[in-house]
TrEMBL record:
<dbReference type="InterPro" id="IPR029058">
    <property type="entry name" value="AB_hydrolase_fold"/>
</dbReference>
<protein>
    <recommendedName>
        <fullName>Alpha/beta hydrolase</fullName>
    </recommendedName>
</protein>
């Protein structure tokens, strides 16, 4: 696994975001690519992680090692954010322990580790999933202080089956929610 700079911060005090991919969803795929562009336009330093998942490693420890290394590769700051897709959301327990805000795109809510962390998350976290995704179980995190967005008819890629226009509209709503969340974080 490795991380690389996708966008340099506007100045030495810029906040830092780490993008964590899924197992088959890279940092160049739409949800992470456009999230990175949105952050870069706001002056953030954006660090992207690329990996081949080690099946022998547990998902939480594997992802925690990657996110720790990515933040070490980026400029030091207390203003940090994780934007993760699916498998990358196994960083949720780490983010909670470290006090790092997060945007969790299609978190794997069939995992007890991810579900417990999201259930106990603060308002500095945003979770987005689609009701056509079998791994998106928003009732499992009822009572969380995190903002939870349910995208109607969207699958695990937050697209709508056999409807590119509806998919584009759904993803546009996702980026609106990401933008609003960033505004509320006041980084």
């Amino acid at each position: 696994m490795a991380s690389r700079t996708l966008a340099r911060g506007a100045n030495a005090n810029s906040p830092v975001a780490v993008l964590l991919p899924g197992t088959g969803y890279t940092i160049h795929a739409p949800l992470l690519y456009w999230s990175g562009k949105l952050l870069a336009e706001r002056g953030w330093h954006v660090q992207g992680v690329e990996w081949e998942v080690d099946a022998a490693a547990g998902p939480v420890s594997f992802v925690e090692e990657a996110v720790t290394a990515a933040f070490e590769d980026a400029p030091g700051t207390s203003r940090r954010l994780i934007v993760a897709k699916s498998f990358g959301c196994f960083a949720l327990p780490w983010a909670q322990r470290e006090g790092v805000a997060g945007i969790w795109l299609t978190p794997v809510l069939t995992s007890d580790d991810v579900t417990a962390a999201l259930r106990n998350a603060s308002s500095s976290h945003l979770a987005i999933g689609g009701n056509a995704d079998e791994m998106w179980l928003p009732d499992a995190v009822a009572g969380t202080r995190a903002r939870v967005v349910n995208v109607i008819d969207a699958d695990h890629s937050l697209t709508v089956k056999n409807d590119w226009r509806a998919s584009l509209s759904a993803q546009s709503r996702v980026f609106d929610a990401v933008s609003t969340h960033l505004d509320e974080l006041a980084f």
